[in-house]
Amino acid sequence: MIEQAASAKIVLGIDIGGTGIKGAPVNVETGELLCERVRIDTPQPATPEAVGAVVKQLVEQFNWQGPIGCTFPAIVHNGVTLSAANVDASWLNAPAQDILAQVTGLPLKLINDADAAGLAEGVFGAAKGKAGKVLMITLGTGIGSALIVDGKLISNTELGHLIFKNDEIAEKYCSGKIKDDLDLKWKEYTQRLNEYILHLQLLLSPDLLIIGGGISKKHDKFIPELTGLRFPVVPAELKNDAGIVGAALEAAREFGVL
Ligand code: BGC
């Protein structure tokens, strides 16, 4: 681990995803990871208990003793996971935050994955210092969303689940996975995404839209082609680390580290 001043404010960030669980200690004042992140395959079936064992393994690997911030790809309300769109059904209504806190024996805050990414972008990335209404969408297996108003996160917006076209939810129409599954060319995919973003514009009139998720690495293929929008659209800046950093930040706030 990189040497830090004794006064450095550090929280362990963990990002739980469908295929991998990643973690690293984060300096929550700078957003920097203190060392290379560690990734462990998500166990299958990914029950709360099995995932808990991996989270514990990460804590032990870093010999971690302090607070933990942890993401999850579902609605997380008061520490309970209330949906399971792309994860094992056993998470539905699970007291996930308590389960993970108990298994690690440490103070732990659970937060939706897109909310964590949005928080991190708001403080250290593409929306740093931006006032107004910032919307972030993550285009991956599903579509995640984060709404930040004057720096304050409005959590669990779940805009990937907007009923949108042909009575389908948006993430079944234009997630990154849909592009792959249907083998959509960039032009066709961008058209779908543009329709969705126009719908978001109609409902929310954001001042800035940040696009994250795996597909945002190829932002030059689709962002410049988007039309009819009243606000700038920019790619996420923190890339793969946004979840880890945002979760650590949320926990730092919750447990008085910041
Ligand atoms: C879930 C969201 C999550 C998003 C990205 C959606 O299916 O409902 O909670 O943020 O996927 O992982």
UniProtKB/TrEMBL annotation:
CDD domains: ASKHA_NBD_ROK_PPGK (cd24058). Coiled coil: none annotated. It is an enzyme of class 2 (transferase). PANTHER family: POLYPHOSPHATE GLUCOKINASE (PTHR18964:SF146), ROK (REPRESSOR, ORF, KINASE) FAMILY (PTHR18964). GO terms for molecular function: polyphosphate-glucose phosphotransferase activity. Its EC number is 2.7.1.63. Keywords: Transferase. Signal peptide: none annotated. Pfam families: ROK. The keyword Transferase applies. This is Polyphosphate--glucose phosphotransferase. Transmembrane segments: none annotated.
